[in-house]
Amino acid sequence: MPTRGLAQLAIWSDIEPELETDYLHWLTREHVLERVGVDGFLSGRVFRSEVAGKRRFFITYELQEAAALAGPSYLARLNAPTPWSQRVMPILQNFARGGGPVVARAGLGCGAMALPLRLDLETAGLLDEGAQRALVERIAKLDAVAQVWLMRVDAAATGVPTREKSMRRSVEGAFDGVLVIEALHEAAARAAVDGLLLAELASADVPDRQVFAACFQLDRRLAGLC
């Protein structure tokens, strides 16, 4: 019986509205398919939002294990971007990327809305495994929350220089943890994070609290790669 992946890759970027059609076609007709074909990648999910006249995207890939981030299959793709990828990479703004092991996960299924928080785990008081597990399990019990996961960023694997990285104009953001709340609707996601910011994460610096709506998902099995 298949089990959940032990790691995730999380990516944020903004694009100008007039470039969105080509960007979405690239994602859904080439890029996510290419990524889930990488050894150790299980699925990819794309979430979308609108912020200050930009189109903001949150993309996450479920990985078999964190080693896939620095594996030869993934690095080969990153160092040989397609012509379409070469055209898209320079238009990405406010780019941020981090991947690593999922240290805690709770809930069932996937939510229609995602609220990803980039965190400093030490400032947030989330270095201890018990605290990580307790927080994620408590959030998952909240009304209309489907799933919650907490990832610790593997800076070494994420930071490997590649040709794709050199093509982007934005500098990747620095953060060492990602907490993602997946909910059935926006109000539930916002209520969950508002409660966190008043309680467990009150001392943490959480600048980006954007809620994203799911717009595309691709599993290796649906792509005929298994």
Provide a brief overview of the structure.
The chain is of the alpha+beta class. 28% of the residues lie in helices and 33% in strands.
Topology summary:
Blueprint: E1 7-15, H1 20-36, E2 41-51, E3 54-63, H2 72-78, H3 83-88, E4 93-107, E5 113-119, H4 129-140, E6 145-152, H5 155-158, H6 163-167, E7 177-183, H7 186-198, E8 212-219
Antiparallel strand pairs: 1-3, 1-4, 2-3, 2-8, 4-6, 5-7, 5-8, 6-7
List keywords for this structure.
226 residues, Alpha-Beta Plaits, alpha+beta, 8 strands, 33% strand, 7 helices, eight-stranded antiparallel β-barrel
- The SSE order reads EHEEHHEEHEHHEHE
- Order of strands in the sheet with most strands: 1-3-2-8-5-7-6-4
The tally of domains stands at: 1
Shape: globular
Query: Which stretches of 5+ consecutive residues score pLDDT under 50?
Result: none
Helical proportion? 25-40%
Number of helices: 7
CATH topology category name: Alpha-Beta Plaits
- Rounded mean pLDDT score: 92
Report the end-to-end length measured between terminal Cα atoms: 14 Å
At the first level of CATH, the class is: Alpha Beta
| Fraction in beta strands | 25-35%
Let me know the largest β-sheet: 8 strands, antiparallel, barrel
Number of strands: 8
Q: Which structural class is indicated by helix and strand composition?
A: alpha+beta
CATH architecture: 2-Layer Sandwich
Subunit arrangement of the protein? single chain
Q: What Rg, in angstroms, do the CA atoms define? A: 17 Å
